[in-house]
């Protein structure tokens, strides 16, 4: 029998009924699946992306687990045993060894939009719900998943164990709620948070858009939790370029701001070269300009 050992105590083994997924003392059968080359590539990509739980609390259901040989029809992945699943794939073609489209948890929606990851909603939900990703985009999306915040998959709220930001959303709320205390408030007023750059459901969105009511100048604020990288600078540049092509932004200067908990010297220099202001933020809302 073919076997594959993976991180975090996961063992995949081909049996007559399909693929036996074992993790710790639990196991289940993914019916009719096998360890084809595409499946091996899939599970290894999921591990690299940090989705190293294939059995989690109450998923699969207890009555579907081993020794029930009928099992389930899917493979699913989660960043922890206590969070919701991040990705599930329930289509497999035994003859070709290929898997079908992936369904990513709908709680990633805002982050998918922000990164420009391609998806459609499930057919039964035209404007919301889980995110269907075509087969050819599943592996690239898994690679991008390394940059996403998995806290959105938490099954319930947990008490904060330390002072700090858990998500980009918390930084955004801190800035919006304490706007009067920020250096931007001297000139600018908030126009909108999550401003759609392109229009439409899957538009890229600006974290905070503000304007100088006297001069008409615009301020585009991009927020990153933890450390900002070079892509964040390019993202602000792209937003400024896109808005500059719109009639609504034809009057007044367009200025960009990058806010993160940590900004390296290299990223500061890139921001300075691009004419983008850079600020490091400390809990609960203290901003310090670094470029």
Radius of gyration, whole Å: 22 Å
- Estimate percent helicity: 10-25%
Query: What structural class do you assign from the helix and strand content?
Result: alpha+beta
Shape: elongated
Number of E-type strands? 17
Beta-strand share of residues: 25-35%
Q: In terms of per-residue confidence, which ranges show pLDDT below 50 for 5 or more consecutive residues?
A: 157-162
Major β-sheet strand ordering:
12-13-14-15-16-17
How many domains comprise the coordinates? Answer: 2
**End-to-end span in angstroms?**
59 Å
Main beta sheet, described? 6 strands, mixed
Q: Count up the helices.
A: 6
Average pLDDT, to the nearest integer? Answer: 89
Listing every helix as H and every strand as E from the N terminus to the C terminus, the arrangement reads EEEEHEEEEEHEEHHEEEHEHEE
InterPro entries: NucS_C (IPR048301), tRNA_endonuc-like_dom_sf (IPR011856)
GO molecular function, one term: nucleic acid binding
Protein name: Endonuclease NucS C-terminal domain-containing protein
Pfam family, one: NucS_C
């Amino acid at each position: 029998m073919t076997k594959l050992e993976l991180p975090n105590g996961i063992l995949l083994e081909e049996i007559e009924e399909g693929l036996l997924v074992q993790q710790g003392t639990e196991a289940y059968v993914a019916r009719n699946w096998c360890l084809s080359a595409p499946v091996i590539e899939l599970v290894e990509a999921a591990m690299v992306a940090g989705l190293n739980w294939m059995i989690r609390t109450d998923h699969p259901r207890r009555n579907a687990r081993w020794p029930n040989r009928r099992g389930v029809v899917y493979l699913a992945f989660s960043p922890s045993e206590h969070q919701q699943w991040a990705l599930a794939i329930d289509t497999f073609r035994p003859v070709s060894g290929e898997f079908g489209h992936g369904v990513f948890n709908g709680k990633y929606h805002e982050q998918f939009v922000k990164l420009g990851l391609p998806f459609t909603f499930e057919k039964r939900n035209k404007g919301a719900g889980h995110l269907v990703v075509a087969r050819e985009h599943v592996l690239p999306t898994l690679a991008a998943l390394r940059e996403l915040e998995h806290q959105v998959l938490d099954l319930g709220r947990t008490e904060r164990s330390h002072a700090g930001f858990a998500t980009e959303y918390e930084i955004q709320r801190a800035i919006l709620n304490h706007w009067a205390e920020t250096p931007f408030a001297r000139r600018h007023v908030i126009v909108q948070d999550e401003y759609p750059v392109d229009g439409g459901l899957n538009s890229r969105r600006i974290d905070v858009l503000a304007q100088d009511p006297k001069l008409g100048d615009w301020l585009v604020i991009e927020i990153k939790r933890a450390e900002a990288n070079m892509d964040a600078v390019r993202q602000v540049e792209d937003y400024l370029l896109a808005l500059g092509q719109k009639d609504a932004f034809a009057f007044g200067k367009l200025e960009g701001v990058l806010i993160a908990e940590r900004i390296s010297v290299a990223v500061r220099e890139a921001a300075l070269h691009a004419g983008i202001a850079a600020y490091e933020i400390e809990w609960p809302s203290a901003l310090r300009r670094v470029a």
